[in-house]
UniProtKB/TrEMBL annotation:
PROSITE patterns: VWFA
Leader sequence residues: 1-23
Alphabetical keyword list: Signal
Xref: Gene3D superfamilies: von Willebrand factor, type A domain (3.40.50.410)
Record Pfam families: VWA_2
Stretches assigned to the VWFA domain: 26-205
Matching SUPFAM superfamilies: vWA-like
Organism: Pseudogemmobacter humi
Protein name: von Willebrand factor type A domain protein
Amino acid sequence: MRLPYARLLSAVFAMFIAVPVAAQTTTMIVMDGSGSMWGQIDGRTKLEIARETVAGVLEPLPESRVIGLMAYGHRERGNCADIELIVPPAAGAAAQILDAVNAMRFQGKTPLTEAVRQAAEALRSTEEPATVVLVTDGIETCEADPCALAAELEASGVDFTAHVIGFGLTREEGAEVACIAENTGGRYLPASDAGALASALEQAISDTPAPEIAPLEIPETVRESRRFPGAVWMPGFALAPTGYAFGPDLPEPAAFDFPGDGTPEQCRAICEADGNCGSWRYEPAGSYFVDHARCFAFRPGTEFHADVYPPEEGFVAGMKPGIVGLTVPYVGLGAPATASLTLTGPVAPGEEFTVLWSGPANADDWIEIARPGADISSEEFSWAYTAETIEPGDRPEGAARLTAPAEAGIYELRYVLGRRPDRRMIFSMPLPVGVEATAPVLSPVRITTPAGFEAERISWSATPLAPAPDAPEAVAMPEAFSGPWQAELSPGRWRIEGLADSGMFFAAKITVAAAPGQAFEIPVGLESEGMGEEAAIPGLPGTPYTDPETGLSMRLPEGWTLTEAFFAETAAGARADRPSAAFTGPDGRILALNPLQWLESNGRCLESPLGPLCLFGAEDAATDAAMATLAPSLSFTPRFGGAVFTPQGDDPMSQLVPGWSAE
């Protein structure tokens, strides 16, 4: 049986700092304050375990013990220079360190190499032996070489030893940071090595060999289910295992050699060809100061948090259809992301209030109060991380406590997608503080189609993307009619959709201002600012839709979108004869058609004309209804590919056979 992580970490901490006082060793704890510390182990966040561990280890220390604290990633998101000597080494500083750790925010990157360098510099002024205890739950993320630094420190002649605690690291990740300990005469200990840690703790405290003790039988903790699927191709993403595995004990992927100039496509092909591989990660040459490309393969049942980088840096990852493991829902870079905020009652100036939220729930996402029109992350008023307030269960939602501004007025409440490569506000709403909430002012707008479609009879609908608290959920004209739609909408962002009797579909996002005389032309299909190739394909209730790339046809249930459709292909080029697809519904519900690998614990499957349609997550009436609508409607017309061209004259648009030209 495994010992709880809090006990394991206590053992490791104590092993390194509970040395005899006569040794006169000055110890510096370097604490990981990165956002990944919000990841969970055995149903508890790592930061909670770390805080509890520090308290248990520091309280019994003698007052004469010289100890200090340095931290990184605890003050600012995405800043590799966020390193601080919080408590300089001093005798009797244990209580001060405990208070500092309890006050830390966990939000930034992992510049562990530079943190160790600064810790060594802070200890250099002493003439006594110095020890650094580095606690990290991740590898270096700030383009530095921890191994080179450790060798440099050892060569400098400083009486300096670094011990590294790998908190939930995989074997591969542990190897990347173990060199810090090895090159300075210290030890690397994974926090999961229960037997070794218990023995080492006993020897460190008593300075004598510990007697053999029968291992303590502690039942495994049942972990809350909150794992999500990704996509087969995720540019800019690096899957970072949390160290936790779930589901059946499946075999690991086969070992493989990866060329130094290998590509992401080659890495994906290796995983696709291996039935034991569920997910993969590609690291480009030059990343983490490694001069060659690397590929990592992971078995199904591996849990990940996702590090996100600008796509131009070359990181790519992928997860096979039906594979789950992400601790938060997947949102591609630049792809649409949805969130909602709901107040539970009136808000008084200067008082705390509760806001209910749902959204992507990434480690860096936050909810903030701002003045209307202010830049995001102004931090003028109260804010809270969603990861700090997420509730147990399989849906990304929670309740945050904020403090209202002291001055009465109308403010703005926002949900911010916090990751640095595409940081943006994805939801906002007015926040009345100490004033009566008034009904939204309505602006007259004119909705039209492009030229050539004026005669189409169309049913229109408008859905608010950032509604006022008392705004309607949607505005609709269910009866089809031709000509412009004259509507009254409250100022803000709206999604406009229209379905013609002929089956033609119109959709766009618009921004309505508080002004008269506004007109919007709604194009065919999906056109919207900020939406690229990964934009989801929308659908009205029961809307017929055919994916142009695969020929997959269906009727999309209300609130559901087709987010991905493709043909699975092996490294040898063998291609599936039926498409696979993923559908996303309200509140992050997921349906997968023909998943490549599917665990029974993921959810139930329903047979469709094209193969199994599987539900990820818990069942409810909404998902049952969606499956009942979608499954029987699935059909497939093979497409042979080729370039689209428009011939001369009035001939209809055609499609070229690959290798042929329009001449």
